[in-house]
User: Fold Helix-turn-helix domain-containing protein from Prauserella cavernicola.
Amino acid sequence: MESRELQGRVARLHYQHGMTHQEIGDLLGLSRVKVTRLLADARRAGIVEIRIHSSSNPFEDLETALVGRYGLQQAWVAPSFADARRTWDSVGMAGAECLRALVPTTGTVAIGLSSSVAAILPHLHPEPRPDIGFVPLAGSWGGMSRGMNPHELALKLGSAFGARTYHLPAPILASTPEAGAAFREDPGVRETMALAGGADLLIAGVGGMDRASGILVDALSAAERTQLAADGAVGDISARFFDTDGRGVPGRLDERVVGLSLEALSAIRHRVAVSFGPHKVAALDTALRTGLMNMVVTDVDTAKSLTGKTGTALPGTERKSG
Amino acid sequence: MESRELQGRVARLHYQHGMTHQEIGDLLGLSRVKVTRLLADARRAGIVEIRIHSSSNPFEDLETALVGRYGLQQAWVAPSFADARRTWDSVGMAGAECLRALVPTTGTVAIGLSSSVAAILPHLHPEPRPDIGFVPLAGSWGGMSRGMNPHELALKLGSAFGARTYHLPAPILASTPEAGAAFREDPGVRETMALAGGADLLIAGVGGMDRASGILVDALSAAERTQLAADGAVGDISARFFDTDGRGVPGRLDERVVGLSLEALSAIRHRVAVSFGPHKVAALDTALRTGLMNMVVTDVDTAKSLTGKTGTALPGTERKSG
DNA sequence: CGATGAATTGAACAATTGTTCAGCCATAGT
DNA sequence: ACTATGGCTGAACAATTGTTCAATTCATCG
Assistant:
């Protein structure tokens, strides 16, 4: 598109000279709608950058409360919205900020490929870090979900940072424990898993036990979910289910998983949980309380549930929130 | 006001998290209108900064045309609006940009105190240049006009740059030629005028001969204006009237002026005219054509009149403009 | 202690901005 | 040549943002 020039002109006329879309359209011989679209494009393309010169963080109180309650290294809270898509976007943006802050200039980053992590992608501005590598925490799952498969996810993540991406050539959940063992013994798989286990940073979603609270749980059969619940599972990180003490839930299902064990991933120093929603509060609380994860990216509603706090509001009467 | 913190929070929620004013109000326990006002304040306070990452200049063609036609060093063109106040604002903003670009880090800047120059003030962001001095081109006029007197103007200008400001202790127009001579011989006046004459940069308005086209002309009697017109005057710079050849108009009026002569101000290397409006086209054209001024800050309509150009429009049909 | 006036508030209104949708145009594939 | 297909357009509608104005609060002064 050679409209960069035009986008810039229109952006200047609107943001610097304060002209309305209609006035710009009249001046340049464009329709108002066209001007509106050029401006939206310009913002998406990053031609328009809005900076806030203030150290204030609107959700500082909730972030501090999370850090205090769970002894975290850091926490990121994003606003909640009635419209679920907007909340995904919002948390994704916070996740992108977290990544910008934490991704090192060299070393390895382990990634739990989940829809929460996928939500981060659209908000990553290219920022070259050629000397890092992104390694999946576990194998890939089959079908598409939310229009995103793990390959694509890892690739986009890598390309945003200009970094290497590794692939774990196995399903996240093999059909039998024996098949799982076979995959785990594959040299390629072992190598990649060793790399992930030695990572400096881990970013992963934390799933709950409800349907719709994670791609994986959704794919299990009713019997399998029942069994897991009976075994005390309250949530999972990349298919590794844990109980209220944060310990793994052994069993046939666990043996089918191709991916880092909870013990192995706990060896990674910096471990960020990206997770939100009422379905996931219990799982997330456990993961943070037991130290499985030591940082979190979540939304206001979830943060309030976790901390028991009521308000972000400054002075008097709070009203309905999101 | 200790609301800086709040302004920052609100600005973040709106511009970074994309929340509407209503949503922010609900979250923080404020009314929507209050949020709207906080955001407006934040923008005015510079907490919100909008940058356009593009080299495109919407009025490049007109600026280039002006530079080419008159052999100028540079030209600044701002959009015109149907609402006169908005056009003043617009040109004032362009003037501020011009100042940012041209005001040196050390030396002297001569200022023609006029309403055009006054329009620049609200758009100056503080930018310390402690080693420069602002010197008026001429004495001060008596009454308030557009709520701005020359003292105030010079003071604000100086304080925006953290610079020294000088004052010329005399009226711009003495009551008689003799009184004028007396003022000009005053040591303080001579000294300040000498300083102005040796300036590196000059910024001044260019007035036309109509009433309402300048504070000064407006203050003259009908007889005085008739006489000036008869003598061939087409405009003025700080009370120094000039004819179509850019030469001074001698006479009793000229002898009453306390301020730099046209010859003296022509010795300043960089001379910026800040002027716009149909009343001033003839005067501005003369000032630029004869080289009295060698840079200009004006609006689109005036620029079009000066260059004979029709359009800023890119492609096909242009429509009504401002 | 009440009067006065400036500053602040939010409801109602006005303007601007954003989105949807049906129609149009161009391209490519029969 | 004829028609799908997909992108592009702007009119109409919907939502958000900005402004005005009367009411109110609050501090100050008589």
User: Anything to note?
Assistant: Chain A has two domains: 4-44, 60-307.
